[in-house]
Amino acid sequence: MPYTMDVNVAKNQVLVKAFGLTEADVPAYISDFEQAMKKLKPGFTGVTDVTDSKTILTPEVAAMLAPTGDIAVAHGVGGWVYVADTPMWKMQMKRLFGKFAVHYPTYEEADAYLNSLLKQ
């Protein structure tokens, strides 16, 4: 499986772990993403962990995934963070997702950041 997507309803958070998405994977990913959004309340947070992905997204895959940002905003995202430990991933996430491209090298740091948003 090129990714996992887990929804923690109690925490109002979605956790995505990406292992290398291809163009063929994107329709299922978007469908799963839309289903995840239906389980969450406005103000939800999200984490995308790409630390186990061997490659960055191709331009084609990145373009196909771009609507997920709009979907998250439409459902009331309160914050999103990326777990990325390479400069290439950090650069790609910033280019693709702008202000939502906050990144940390570990899940624990990412989660602490999102928890800090809830306290504001």
TrEMBL record:
Taxonomy, superkingdom: Bacteria
Organism whose genome encodes this protein: Paenibacillus riograndensis
UniProt-recorded name of the protein: STAS/SEC14 domain-containing protein
